[in-house]
Amino acid sequence: MTKTKYQLISDEIRSKILSNAYPKGSNIPSETQLQKEYDVSRHTVRQAIALLVNEGYLRKEKGAGTFVDDRYLSPSLEQKKQQKTIGVITTYVSDYIFPSIIRGIEQELRKDGYSLLLASTNNDLEQEAACLEQMLNQGVSGLIVEPTKSNTYNPNLSYYLSFKERGIPVVMINANYEELSLPTVCVDDTQAGFLATDYLLNHGHNHLGLLIKLDDLQGKYRMKGFI
Question: What positions does the domain HTH gntR-type occupy (predicted)?
Fold first, then answer.
């Protein structure tokens, strides 16, 4: 079903709140500014704001403006958080090593009564942002993430700060974002690159080539071991 203009505006403002573009307690643009920014009527802007106030993301203060509510983690989300659900975001789901990884995570979660909420980015940064918003809105108890294009600039890092502010632990797998200090489970790709190169050299192969993905840290570190 096609969304109305006010719903689209509220979606964008909500995304800015979740990504910390509008930090908790900050004053969002005035109704007049939003009206000009989105080229809509004042009534449409007020509908969008009213929806977010009702959801707990915004609060209005007479004479002061509209603010990001520092209690925007609404009771419904808190209740979901108690459902013992762990979010898992991988770049892919059905290919390569991912089916085994996902099965292993799910098996361990079940032992402690947790369920799994799965999402995939297809190694696309816009889809990663959508996945992170989904996890924040669902109120997961924890998050396991394989980074998307971990060796390139990532505009989604502020979402991870939102998880930290909510006290939701995040663990990276296979790689990490070097700008963030998060626990990571991964192989030693530098050592793996070195061992593979050393093996070939010791078996008389002196003209070696290397095929890697440089947009991921795995490729960067494997190249380091190769060199």
Answer: 3-71
Q: Which domain holds residue 60?
A: 5-68
pLDDT of residue 193: 92
Residues 35 and 101 in one domain: no
pLDDT, tens digit (0-9, with 9 covering 90-100), for 140-154 = 999 999 999 988 999
- 148/122 Cα distance (integer angstroms): 8
pLDDT value of position 78:
53
> Coil, helix or strand for 184?
strand
- Return the half-sphere exposure (C-beta side, CA atoms, 13 A cut-off) of residue 156: 19
Q: Is the separation of the CB atoms in 58 and 28 below 8 Å?
A: yes
The domain that holds 166 is classified in CATH as 3.40.50.2300
Q: Residues 155, 176: one domain?
A: yes
pTM of the model: 0.73
Taking 70 as the pLDDT cut, the residues of the chain under it are 1, 70-82
Number of domains in the chain: 3
Asked whether residue 52 falls in the same domain as residue 92, the answer is: no
The answer to whether the CB of 131 falls within 8 A of the CB of 121 is yes
d(CA 210, CA 59): 55
Residues 115 and 170 occupy one common structural domain: yes
